[in-house]
Amino acid sequence: MGLYSRLSGAAAAIAVAFGFFAGAPAKATADDAAIANFYRGKTMDLIIGYSPGGGYDQYARLVGRFLGKHIPGNPSIVPRNLPGASSRTAAAFLYAKAPQDGTVIGTADQSLALAQVMGDSTLRDIDTGKFGYVGSPTMENNIVITWHKSKVTDVEKARQIAVPIGATGGSTSSQYPLIMNNLLGTRFEIIMGYPGGNDINMAMENGEVDGRGSVNWGSVKPLGWVDKKMINILVQVGLQREKELPNVPLLMDFAAKDEDKQMLRLISAPTTIGRPIFSTPNVPPERLDALRKAFDAMVKDPEFLAAAQKEGLLVEPISGKQLEQIVTEIVSTPKDVGAKLAKLIGVQ
Known about the structure:
By secondary structure, the chain is α/β, with parallel strands linked by helices.
């Protein structure tokens, strides 16, 4: 499933958007015995850039339970939450402080590469293109939502009524409402600083905020909110509409001119990164290849798929090589284009 069967869908869209095609075979791995000798008896850390309970945390913990089974030597994998600065604390740890030998992996915001393009000062010491990308268990659109009690039920209402909307910080959860305010004329009052998506969910349910600036569609479905009509989905963010959301407009659909569409398309592109799992820079190539091979095997594992289904988590995987290509293309965005987008959403 995922990119292995969706090349005519979102994968093709990102290929067209960035000028490459998926599906290139991975490099040959080193002898499994050598890899097994390295990993046998070791404990790997899985650094999660957000607090427990949110979508990134759920997918990372699911991966953590099964990935070791497919790595030669079968190391144990221990999830460790390291929230802060919209996952930048975790990214900084992985980039500069964690051992660079393939024993530490992690997950962080899908839009870090885009933030780098925009000159985000919190990423000045990080080059997201140097992480060792292992894979992503899902690739789905994000959505901007309000709670059912909110007076804002669609984009037009959001242009008329100012409401508070929760965000973690300089991530998609603040980027989407900011660009909607600047290009679409919405009036979102963005409340930043929540450590994770689950914290925003609780704030929304308690009436502290009216909505959430970004949440993955795959993370919302298991909550039952849609069936119970507990939320309003204002827009979906991606390069094509989700099959289950045919009547929810894409953010790009609201572009009033070509330049606006370019900006909205650029900010939509990181949805193809999904919930990325990556290692540190400078991991020996044979070990990164082994981690990628293990990930590719894991996402086809019936036990993994059954566990995901039990938790209500959709599996639409992306290979590590594909993630590497997408990130490389995003960070290659011309500086003037990145600067325009940065100005629109107030990146400093």
